[in-house]
Amino acid sequence: MSQRALSSFLVIPARLASTRLPRKLLLRETGKPLLQHTYESASRARKPAGMCVACDHEEIFAAVRAFGGSAVMTDPAAPSGTDRVAEVARGLTDVDIVVNVQGDEPEIAGSSIDLAIELLERNPEAVMSTLATPIRNRRQLEDPACVKVVFDAQGRAMYFSRSVIPRPREWDDHLPEEEPPHFFQHVGVYAYRRDFLLQLSQMPQSALEKIEKLEQLRVLSGGYTILVGVVDEPTLGIDTPEDYRAFVEKCQHC
């Protein structure tokens, strides 16, 4: 088992348009854009040698430069965040691992990003890693916007879904409280081996990916290994106006 330190670089794909919360990455009720919160949180990771925002619009690019971040313009027609990250990765010829942090994860911990990288350093057979955190309430478990993941005893992802997985045959209100946890939320962080990321961007969508609208199912459908690291700190991904209001309120009490 190799534990060689690999070179890594972090990319935050940023798209101006968003369906459920328009222009969410530029919302600034806290005094700074949501994207800046994510950038500052991600910059606390120790392992990446550098980071940038992969932008699809000049307005995003200007906002990143305004708060002192590094920004790169990518193809506005790129079909997904993964394709945007891959576009940046093509120029990172001296990098082993590319980390993709979603722009709407303002509370992501630097240690969580480091863990995703470490999983690939320790497990050379895996091409990709991601994170999960326990789900402790039924409402969140049954919310389709909360993506769930199940994994085996070695931490290899078995499936990702918007549905409840595993689905209890008989519900018990104590199930979300039990240890070890039964239910896990997928956290929007991915680490890829650079060569695999470039290959992934050329792979066709799988049937499961089309149904669930989850890109990581393309990897599992292709027979590749995704390692899942468990973190105890739940992060607040911002998908809806309610999510953003909760984040703003939390910032006011910090």
What does this structure look like?
The chain is of the alpha/beta class. It has a single domain (8-252), classed as Spore Coat Polysaccharide Biosynthesis Protein SpsA, Chain A, CATH 3.90.550. Helix content is 30%, strand content 20%. The protein has 9 helices and 9 strands. It has helices at residues 34-42, 58-66, 81-89, 110-122, 138-141, 194-200, 207-212, 216-221, 241-252; strands spanning 8-14, 51-55, 71-73, 97-101, 128-134, 148-151, 157-161, 184-193, 226-230. The strands form 2 sheets. The protein has a 7-stranded mixed sheet, with helices on both faces. The protein has a two-stranded antiparallel sheet with strand order 6-7. Strand 1, helix 1 and strand 2 (51-55) form a beta-alpha-beta unit.
